Every structure is written in C-alpha cells, then in structure tokens.
Amino acid sequence: MKKDQIVTPRWGWALTGSGHFFTECLEMIRTLDHVDLFVSKAAAEVVRMYKHDLNLPDTVRIFKDTTASAAPVGGFYYNVYHTLVMAPATSNTVAKCVFGISDNLATNVFAQAGKCRVPSIVFACDTAPELETRAPKGMVMVYPRRIDLENTERLKSFEATQVVESLAALQEAVARRHGEITPHQS
Known about the structure:
alpha/beta; 33% helix
C-alpha cells in the first residue's frame, strides 16, 4: 500500500501531550492495521522529550497539528474512520472535550468523531487521586485535582464515547472494537 492511499475505514488515533503510558500506546498502534495518527503539538513535544522513535508500520499515516483549522479532520465526514482512539489523553484535553473546545488537532478530531457518530475510546490520564506516571527522567507520583477527576467522569456521559482508566482497559476496549468491525475493515 502506498502512504497516500486511503483504505477505509481506518482507525483514527489521537496522541496528546502526556507521557502516561505513551510508549505502550505506541506499541498498540503498531499492532493495528490502517491507522491515521493525529499528533497534537503537545504530543510532538512528548515524542522529543521522551526520545521516542515512532517507527510505525507503512499502513500508518501521520497527521501533525500544523493547520489552524485542523484540516485533517475531514475524513470523519466521509466514513474514513470506524473508530477514534485518544490515548493517552491529558487532563487538559479531557477538559476541552468535556466543554466542547476543539482548538487543536486532538480535540478537533474528538469533536468531529462525535458529530459524525464515530465511536471513540478515550484513555484518560487523570483517573485516581494518586497515580504513578512516567516523566522524562523516570517514574513520579502525581495527584490529579478534583476538577480533573470530575471532567473524566463527565466525559463518560458522552454518547458513543468509552472512557477507560487503565492500560489493560484500553487494550480490552481496542480488542473488543477490533472484534466488532469486519475483518476487511481492520
């Protein structure tokens, strides 16, 4: 397959600016066929900070947050995507999604997925009062604020949106969704 050839429907996967299970999310992306990866400006910074080599299969197309109008979201209007995965999702991204703010590539693809009735799986980073997470120099403890936890709960009420709170739950949700789509659409 050529890089610019569209195979429909595809997975849409939005990366935000979190290091929380970032490596594991990249590993999951590598296991899926036909993924369009939406990389926010913050996610591009995380790639550099954590010194990740994306090293993705040829079936993955990468869209970076370089346009004011988030032009790459147009595929949602034309049934290019069967699923959007947003993982990992920062508290900032979750808050913007909850309040309908779509001012970057990640939040815009989430909004368009919702408007086009494309099921979404969101791996929210801030899901417990205390969490251990990866920082560029190693593991650290973080203590999400009440508003962060409340926004994660609010997002759970969105139609066609499944919020997962652990890597295992993300893996299960993606596997379940993979089983729901027909083999020629994987």
